Amino acid sequence: LAHYCVFGNPIHHSKSPLIHAMFAKQTAQSMDYQANLVPLDGFAASVQQFMNAGGKGANVTVPFKLEAYALSDQLSARAAMAGAVNTLTFSDGAIVGDNTDGIGLVCDITKNAATPIRGRRVLLLGAGGAARGALLPLLEEQPASLMIANRTLSKALDLVQLAVSSDGSKCQIEAKTWEQLDSSFDLIINATSASLQSEVPPIPASVFASPCLAYDMMYADTQTSFNRYAQQYGAATRDGLGMLIEQAAEAFFIWRGIRPDTKPVFDYFRSKEG
Ligand code: ATR
């Protein structure tokens, strides 16, 4: 039996153990996956303990993704670009760090929501860890343009610099504050943490092209404040449930070499809401 876990604090709300249990059953993998509550000052020690006990890999969630990045002996290109790690693989005592959040987002948009990113005008709201993690996978889809908007302009400018330095494509990349936004977009991704406080970044109504998809990376049992706002302006909306399941599927693939079918898992969680 191969052992995996998710490290976080808090962790009781995590859906990852159930998601991975469903993947494991579906693909007949002999593994278990536990939630691991880590003391705020005990991340490195908890990882070491889990490795010593024979653990094969782990996911990492709030607030340890930056520590996981620092602790990794090797990093994937997407984890290096994200500056954060959500997936650890333990191999011969070495810690390999990856980040599957951005690819989970892109996969959910392009495959599950059947919305191409290539050639489209993309607006990314926020310039924190979640936005940074989405950057490289989004650019790899070759959008026509990428606008990064944030409350604090300097942070958006930092992300633009990072994107420009890593992006070989001809994608036009710019930064603005909310009130400077004066054009429309086909895809609007909310990577701010505003929804956690039931707030909405004050973006003008004119950003919503017709048609457009508004995607809130946050997931809750009820519609997020951002998606409610976007719907008023005619946008199709999607929340972060699909991203959550796709980032897990990518981690599962890294560890087990098999891609689980995410649809029944998505349908199960959606059916439990409300
Ligand atoms: P995360 O890891 O979730 O990205 P973070 O790195 O703290 O968290 O980043 C939070 C992001 O949400 C930032 O872009 C932040 O804007 P600032 O850079 O100006 O701080 C944004 N944010 C948080 N609360 C917000 C709010 N109420 N309205 C708009 N933006 C908000």
From TrEMBL:
Pfam families, per database record:
SDH_C, Shikimate_DH, Shikimate_dh_N
What region holds the SDH C-terminal domain?
A: 240-265
UniProt record similarity statement? Belongs to the shikimate dehydrogenase family.
Report residues binding NADP(+).
G126, A127, G128, G129, A130, N150, R151, T152, L153, S154, K155, M217, G240
Which parts of the sequence bind shikimate? S14, K15, S16, T61, N86, D101, Y219, Q247
Q: Which residues form the Quinate/shikimate 5-dehydrogenase/glutamyl-tRNA reductase domain?
A: 112-195
Q: From which source organism is this entry?
A: Undibacterium seohonense
- State the protein's purpose: Involved in the biosynthesis of the chorismate, which leads to the biosynthesis of aromatic amino acids. Catalyzes the reversible NADPH linked reduction of 3-dehydroshikimate (DHSA) to yield shikimate (SA).
Catalytic positions are K65 (proton acceptor)
Catalytic activity entry: shikimate + NADP(+) = 3-dehydroshikimate + NADPH + H(+)
Where does this protein act, in terms of pathway?
Answer: Metabolic intermediate biosynthesis; chorismate biosynthesis; chorismate from D-erythrose 4-phosphate and phosphoenolpyruvate: step 4/7
State whether it acts alone or in a complex, and with which partners, per the record: Homodimer.
- Report the residue ranges that make up the Shikimate dehydrogenase substrate binding N-terminal domain in this protein: 6-88
Signal sequence extent: none
* Protein EC: 1.1.1.25
Instruction: State the organism's lineage.
Output: Bacteria, Pseudomonadati, Pseudomonadota, Betaproteobacteria, Burkholderiales
Name of the protein in its database record: Shikimate dehydrogenase (NADP(+))
Q: Name one GO molecular function term.
A: shikimate 3-dehydrogenase (NADP+) activity
Q: What class of enzyme is it?
A: oxidoreductase
Q: Which UniProt keywords apply?
A: Amino-acid biosynthesis, Aromatic amino acid biosynthesis, NADP, Oxidoreductase
**Organism domain of life:** Bacteria
